[in-house]
Design a protein that fits this description.
globular, seven-stranded antiparallel β-sheet, 31% strand, alpha+beta
Amino acid sequence: MEQVKYFTEDDLQYGKSGSTKQGTVECSFYDLQCMFGKPTFEGKGDNITTEFIVNYSAEGELAEDGYPDEEDMGQFRLYDWYYSRHFGNDSEIITWNIGGNSYEDENYFRIAHKLFEETDIRYGFDFDEPCISTDKFIKLNNLKEAA
């Protein structure tokens, strides 16, 4: 893929249901909030306290007709299972589950995480705004495969 954009769900009712755990990541709440903005859910729920629901849309190179040669769309969820988040320390590194409907969903989270960790994308945005979930395409250029 040449470029990808991420955008979050503002309301749980619009999130896809039926996702399953695709993997895990060690990360802080603070980093996820910097990447994707405010969580979709925060409080005491069924075995979780925090959940981010993130949609993605990716496009390949433009073909001769001016349209992308391939497109991917999907959604992933990041959630703390069994209340692992400590609300008194947003910088604490904890295990987050990555939920989705396919391997691709996890892979697109890993691309976002790699953009955040290995590029300077986090420094070009206001602290009040997410740096990844902007609803604008991010050129991947020569970013190596995330997985």
